[in-house]
Amino acid sequence: MDEGAVATVVQVRWPEGEWSKAYGVRNLESRTPAQPTDRTEVASVTKTMTAVTVLKLVDDHLIGLDDSVNDIIPGFTSTLKPPGLITVRQLLSHTSGMPEVNDALPKDVDFRPVLSQTLTMERGLELAGTLPWTPASVGTFKYSNTNYLALGLLVQTLRHKPFVQVMQEEVFDPLGLKHTSLDHLDPHETGLLHGYVTLHGERVDTTDNTFTIGNPAGGAVSTMEDLNLLMATIFQGRAVSAASLKEMKTSPGFGPYGLGVWEHADGCSKESRHEGRGSFWDYQTVAVSSADGRYQAAMTVTTPPMPTEFEDPSTANKRDLLNGQIESTLNETLDRLCKPAS
Known about the structure:
Elements: E1 7-14, E2 17-24, E3 40-41, H1 46-59, H2 76-80, H3 88-92, H4 112-115, H5 121-128, H6 145-159, H7 163-172, E4 196-199, E5 202-205, E6 221-222, H8 224-235, H9 242-249, E7 262-264, E8 273-279, E9 283-289, E10 296-302, H10 314-337
Antiparallel strand pairs: 1-2, 1-10, 3-6, 4-5, 7-8, 8-9, 9-10
């Protein structure tokens, strides 16, 4: 907060209790104090939710983790021109080598025209398809949002329902995430943390989520309580089968990333902790769980209003640093609280 953050909201859960706290304000206009129950855009923590819907496809024997998606996802081969067969596991673990859709978006200093249009899954694949996908990149870890846009289309195709409906029916409702959605949010709703970016020195409210509506890579709006509940239900074995959970926790060996979750050392266990991490210009969010689901911690920070990296390249490093500070803070907290499972 001393470095200019608009708000910080955190919740920690452990077997003996729960602690939550909010600092700062919901928005810089009314300056209403932020509350622990406030909703925020959680960016790539959405990928952990999407991974659950994909692993449920595997549990229901609709597809296998090592099955090819080339001929299942509409337009996959013709739009993206993959250099070979691409599997479900490669998409989930960011080892497909697929181009990053964000690299194909305009890099204009005035970002507002881009944010005013929804990036659909289909449009995302079309944009990524304008970039080269080389055979050498397949099989190595390369983080790409396009992987999860493709997975959203896979879920939609095999379930014969809109992706947003599947998320509601298979993740939000059964796991009890009552304050989580993929829909267009109303910037005027109470209990919402507002985000900001500066443009030529002027502050711009960037809370409107038109760009990410329904996006399986980064479109969720949630609370810290819901994120902790999500991680608890996954790692306590209540979201997917035991076999799928084991796969989710397992990195293919090319980076500290399993299937929809990052790995982090656990000061109380030989097993790794697992994390969802989200980074937008205006919000930084991390959700951490122990491998057994007994401990969770989640925090979001409304980033200090700064220019985008198109106007000032140094701000990308500042946002990355902030995300790393959140991650280390949460893990240090759990290291202090945790006791080895008996």
